[in-house]
């Protein structure tokens, strides 16, 4: 229902409705996880007080029990969506900036991933894969919170809240190391082609028009992704100065558990046969950020890899 609602552009309250429904879905999934692990129905309830009805755990308490690291990207994503749900009780949020919609998109993908990981159920068996992609079809400047027309439509309090939220999301995304579990980073890449029908965006030359934003040009992979796995290991060993014993296996575990080969900002492999995978400096920085936020990062990643291997 959350996916159907968010993708129906004619519904005025689709943002609020999605937030309510996805939070409810997460709460039920997390309670199922807690119950399944404990094998005890009482695990999903607070201790009963005399004269008061039995109460089940709140979403936030479920999140804390399942994702115990407070800097876990999936946990922070759920908590941020829950915050927006709470604000939506008091505000009419008919339109939101890109930063919020990509937060929602990550929330959906995280749910899909955990549902399969914990219970072997694929969300794609119940809804089409296309439904899992949140509709984002509008001109960016029209949804710029500095746009006077949009500000009048939303109202002062809503604009104030969304402006603050947008800044916080961007800051936290950077601080966490830009994990896809927190927010889906969207961008456009342009290429020269002789066939305009193959392009999503067409650039032309004319007497009128306006300046574009920065256009990304093809990069030399030896500069953008100059590291092999052995280089990554050496840099981590040097940065950690013996506080952790890091080897090639640890890096391979991180690559597999976190799907690094699907993240072009971290990984590149040439099209030529027998080309070796190459990694960016950002990959090393991301690993160090994860370790800084969670000293058990390497241990937990090894255990996750071993469980998947089993």
Name the features:
mainly alpha; globular; 12 helices; two-stranded antiparallel sheet
Tell me what the structure shows.
The chain is mostly helical and 310 residues long. Helix content is 50%, strand content 1%. The protein has helices spanning 2-6, 14-38, 59-66, 73-88, 98-119, 148-154, 156-175, 221-224, 229-240, 248-257, 281-293, 297-309, and strands at residues 267-268, 278-279. A two-stranded antiparallel sheet has the order 1-2. Helix 2 packs across helix 4. Mean pLDDT is 83; it is low at 137-142.
Write the layout of secondary structure elements.
Blueprint: H1 2-6, H2 14-38, H3 59-66, H4 73-88, H5 98-119, H6 148-154, H7 156-175, H8 221-224, H9 229-240, H10 248-257, E1 267-268, E2 278-279, H11 281-293, H12 297-309
Antiparallel strand pairs: 1-2
Short characterization:
This protein is an all-alpha fold and 310 residues long.
Strand order of the largest sheet: 1-2
Overall geometry comes to: globular
- Give me the strand/helix succession: HHHHHHHHHHEEHH
Number of DSSP-assigned strands: 2
Largest sheet: number of strands, sense, barrel closure: 2 strands, antiparallel
Number of helices: 12
Portion of residues within helices = 40-55%
Whole-angstrom Rg: 22 Å
- In whole angstroms, the N-to-C terminal distance is 35 Å
Structural class: mainly alpha
Mean pLDDT: 83
Bin the strand percentage: under 5%
**pLDDT below 50 for ≥5 consecutive residues: which ranges?**
137-142
């Amino acid at each position: 229902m959350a996916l159907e609602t968010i993708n129906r552009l004619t519904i005025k309250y689709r943002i609020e409705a999605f937030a309510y429904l996805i939070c409810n879905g997460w709460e039920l999934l997390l309670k199922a996880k807690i119950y399944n692990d404990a094998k005890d129905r009482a695990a999903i309830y607070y201790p009963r007080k005399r004269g008061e009805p039995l109460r089940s755990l709140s979403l936030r308490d479920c999140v804390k029990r399942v994702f115990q690291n407070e800097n876990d990207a999936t946990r922070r994503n759920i908590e941020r969506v829950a915050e927006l749900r709470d604000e939506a009780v008091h505000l009419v949020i008919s339109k939101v900036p890109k930063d919020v919609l990509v937060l929602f998109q990550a929330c959906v993908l995280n749910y899909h991933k955990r549902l399969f990981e914990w219970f072997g159920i694929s969300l794609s068996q119940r809804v089409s894969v296309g439904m899992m992609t949140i509709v984002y079809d509008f001109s960016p400047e029209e949804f710029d919170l500095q746009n006077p027309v949009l500000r009048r439509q939303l109202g002062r309090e809503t604009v104030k809240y969304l402006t603050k939220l947008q800044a916080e999301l961007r800051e936290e995304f950077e601080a966490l190391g830009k994990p896809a579990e927190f927010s889906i980073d969207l961008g456009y890449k342009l290429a020269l082609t002789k066939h305009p029908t193959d392009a999503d965006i067409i650039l032309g030359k004319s007497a009128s028009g306006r300046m574009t934003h920065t256009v990304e040009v093809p990069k030399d992979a030896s500069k953008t992704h100059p590291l092999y796995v052995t280089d990554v290991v050496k840099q981590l060993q040097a940065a950690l100065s013996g506080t952790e014993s890091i080897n090639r296996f640890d890096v391979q575990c991180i690559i597999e558990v976190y799907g690094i080969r699907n993240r072009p900002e971290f990984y590149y492999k040439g099209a030529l046969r027998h080309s070796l995978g190459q990694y960016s400096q950002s990959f090393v920085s991301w690993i160090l950020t994860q370790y800084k936020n969670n000293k058990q990062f390497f241990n937990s990643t090894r255990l996750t890899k071993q469980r998947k291997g089993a």
